[in-house]
Amino acid sequence: MKSIVKLTALSGVLLCLAVPAFAEDASTSVEMAFMPSAMDVTLLNENGKFVTVDMKKIAKGEKCHLEKDAVIMKVGPGAAADTTRVRYIAPNLSHGGCPFMTEFELSNTDYTAARDAFTAKKEEASEKIDALKKQLGDKWNELTASTPSGDAPSAEKK
After folding, report:
1. Coil, strand or helix at 146
2. Which of 12, 50, 115, 157 satisfies CB 3.0 to 4.6 Å to 33 for a cystine?
3. 3-state DSSP helix/strand/coil percent for the chain, to nearest 5?
4. DSSP-H helix ranges across the chain
5. How far is CA 71 from CA 9, 26, 34, 106, 117, in A?
6. Max Cα–Cα distance, the chain, nearest Å
7. pTM beyond cutoff 0.70
C-alpha cells in the first residue's frame, strides 16, 4: 500500500514538472474580434462539425453563414497568403448558421477591422464601468465586495 502511495505521489510530481513544457509562451494571448460583416465562410475543421439547431453535419470545405458582430477568436496565420485563421466562439442559435467552434479564414484586412471593432467596444465598456464607479463611489465597493485599491476586503468586521 505504501509503495502505491509513493508511486502515485511520484507520478504526480513528474506530471507537474512535465506540464510547463507544453505551455505556450507568455507572449501568446487570446485575441477576440467581431465579424466585420455578414458572410458565408468555408468550414476548415477536420471531419466537419455538427449543427445542433439544424440537426445536420457540415463537412470540411462546405459553407455556413456568420452574421456581422459574431464573436471570433484568432487561431493563427491562414493557409492562403494574407489570411488569418479564426474560430467562431459563440453558440449558434439560428438555422443556417455556423456551428460552435467553426474554423475558417478571413483576409488580414477583414481580421484587422474585426479586431479594431472589438477593441473599440472593449474600451467603450471600460469607460462606462469607470463612469459607474465614479457615480456610485463607495456603493460600488459594497456591491462588488472590493476595496478602492481593487484588493479583496479583509475578513475583519467593523
Report:
1. coil
2. 115
3. 35, 25, 40
4. 2-22, 108-136, 138-144
5. 42, 24, 5, 13, 11
6. 63
7. no
